[in-house]
Amino acid sequence: KQKAFIFDLDGVIVDTAKYHYLAWKKIADSLGFEFTHEHNELLKGVSRVRSLEIILGVGNIKATQEQKDKWLVEKNEDYLNYITNMEADEILPGVEVVLQWLKNNGQRIALGSASKNARPILEKVGILHYFEAIVDGNDVTNAKPDPEVFLRAAELLGAVAKDSIVFEDSVAGIQAANIANMVSVGIGSRAILHEAQYNFNDFTEIATDFLQTLVNQQ
Ligand code: G6P
Ligand code: MG
């Protein structure tokens, strides 16, 4: 059977969550408030614009649109500096084994990410060729937990929701997959991703038996 396997990018395929965090923290530092890793969980899977709103909420800061636009540009410039030299060694453990197994077994693969930097990152780390469809922050209007990004990805792969499997590291992303009636696989801490149908700490824990089970599922 052919299924649609949809991957989130940041925190699932590559460890860019740490760069997003550092770039946002720099903005928070310059505004004089503490931005912790717990706060950062709220930003995972969330668009750039929405992330800034959340951060300003944390710092209890009111700003004009002009200031916000400036911080959005600064954050992305800083982030781009971090990712510019990314290479294959920043692909998270076990990811390529899973992508290769899916390819070898005739499964379809798509990206479903909120990031507007998704394509260059996949290119830099050398795994763009695995993806038959890419839906990213440039294509969608409604951010996760809205299921738009995953529904679009499944549609591009010609799959219905129940034949689609989503790999996600964010609470918002797991919720989006669940709302779409897709199979949700959480990558990361079970304590945080408890709404996921399945959960693994990383892709090295995902055996081919499990992938085969997903493929065979009715
Ligand atoms: C992903 C990340 C978020 C990030 C968002 C937008 O969902 O998990 O932390 O804010 O993409 O990324 P961008 O690269 O467009 O700023
Ligand atoms: Mg993510």
Automatic annotation (TrEMBL):
Class of enzymatic activity (EC top level): isomerase
Keyword Isomerase among record annotations: yes
Protein's GO biological process: carbohydrate metabolic process
One Pfam family from the record: Hydrolase
Entry's cofactor comment: Binds 2 magnesium ions per subunit.
Cofactor: Mg(2+)
EC number: 5.4.2.6
Binding-site residues, substrate: 8-10, 24, 43-48, 51, 75, 113-117, 144
Binding of Mg(2+), residues: D8, D10, E168, D169
Catalytic residues as annotated in Swiss-Prot or TrEMBL: D8 (nucleophile), D10 (proton donor/acceptor)
GO molecular function: beta-phosphoglucomutase activity; magnesium ion binding
UniProt key word Lyase: no
Reaction catalyzed: beta-D-glucose 1-phosphate = beta-D-glucose 6-phosphate
Segments forming a coiled coil: none
Keywords noted in UniProt: Carbohydrate metabolism, Isomerase, Magnesium, Metal-binding, Phosphoprotein
Highest taxon, organism lineage: Bacteria
InterPro entries, sorted: B-phosphoglucomutase_hydrolase (IPR010976), Beta-PGM (IPR010972), Beta-PGM-like (IPR051600), HAD-like_sf (IPR036412), HAD-SF_hydro_IA (IPR006439), HAD_sf (IPR023214), PGP-like_dom2 (IPR023198)
Residues marked Important for catalytic activity and assists the phosphoryl transfer reaction to Asp8 by balancing charge and orienting the reacting groups (site): S113, K144
Record family assignment: Belongs to the HAD-like hydrolase superfamily. CbbY/CbbZ/Gph/YieH family.
Name the UniProt record assigns to this protein: Beta-phosphoglucomutase
Species whose genome carries this gene: Flavobacterium akiainvivens
